[in-house]
């Protein structure tokens, strides 16, 4: 057994990030300013999006993007139950009704055929989530959106660096929302980015993120600006700070290496678990793609065991292996069970995954020996708890 606890995720922060944050702290300017602009430009050019708006979180990005898309009361938004609650919470918070479509059993991404069946005349938008960093079938989603005149909002929280048929997520003809929370592929502490090809939409999100102020605050205090400003709509306060962007600038430069390291660990897991009967490894997609491997999320066939998934995670912890839960299906959470109940058994693939999924350790600093320890611990726990 491992002597030291292996957490399921640790951010990879180097001396460059630390020095850049210190530079902000010493500079006299710590909130939104030149470093946010540098990060925004670098991110835009990395994903290939003409417009990007840096924010305090992806949750804020989802909310503001939906507001900018005009999604509100009376509208239905089709999305997946296998996501972090924020995706669906924000649909509720803009006053719309979330409609959950079942997932594909292998990739755990939203099943486009199931999404089609959920479309009504009130459906305004479709919100796919690139689960764990595996891109959804965007051609099929765009075709559906064209057929029913829907807006497409990609929850790309897992998909920084994901590619779909040779194109980076963020560059497609939609709106994409990325997250830089510490467990995501790159981090700014907390942070998010909205990317789009639609200039007006980017402008609207930009206004909503900072009081509805027509000019960026830092320009007001610079030599070129004037202290005067106009409020052109009642906005929120979810701008990214320079001390966050200071991290992001260097994280982004390391992203491709991070993804390579994550892919190596994922490949080791896939290989090791493909012959383990009680573990269902994540499926690849049939189309050309680059998986960003934000998470490694196998399903445990608990029907073959004497313990449930939570018991399985507790047993792994005893072996000094940390795990995460991404995710319990949204409709299983108390608020959603009570306020937006779905008929029992109507989302069978999500129900199946929700009870069996767990996230094994996956982060760039992990070694192959760490990953081998995880495999050994999983096999040990399975052997101890077979029916
Ligand atoms: C992490 C996450 C979010 C929220 O991101 P924050 O930056 O923490 O607000 C939204 N959707 C999904 C699928 C996520 O995993």
CATH homologous superfamily placement of the largest domain? Type I PLP-dependent aspartate aminotransferase-like (Major domain)
| Rough outline | globular
Which percent bin holds the helix content? 25-40%
CATH fold type of the largest domain: Aspartate Aminotransferase, domain 2
The figure for the number of domains is: 2
| Percent strand | 5-15%
Report on the biggest sheet.
Answer: 7 strands, mixed
Distance between the termini: 23 Å
Unreliably modeled segments: none
Brief summary:
This protein is α/β, with parallel strands linked by helices and 387 residues long. Helices cover 40% and strands 11% of the residues. It has a seven-stranded mixed sheet, sandwiched between helices. A three-stranded antiparallel sheet has the order 7-6-11, with no helix packed on it. Strands 10-12 form a two-stranded antiparallel sheet.
Structure description:
The chain is of the alpha/beta class. The protein has 2 domains: 238 residues, 3-Layer(aba) Sandwich (Aspartate Aminotransferase, domain 2); 129 residues, Aspartate Aminotransferase, domain 1 (Alpha-Beta Complex), CATH 3.90.1150.10. Helix content is 40%, strand content 11%. It is built from 13 helices and 12 strands. The protein has a 7-stranded mixed β-sheet with strand order 1-9-8-5-4-2-3, with helices on both faces. The radius of gyration is 21 Å and the shape is globular. The model has no long low-confidence stretch (mean pLDDT 96). Bound molecules: pyridoxal-5'-phosphate (PLP). Pyridoxal-5'-phosphate binds next to α3 and α4.
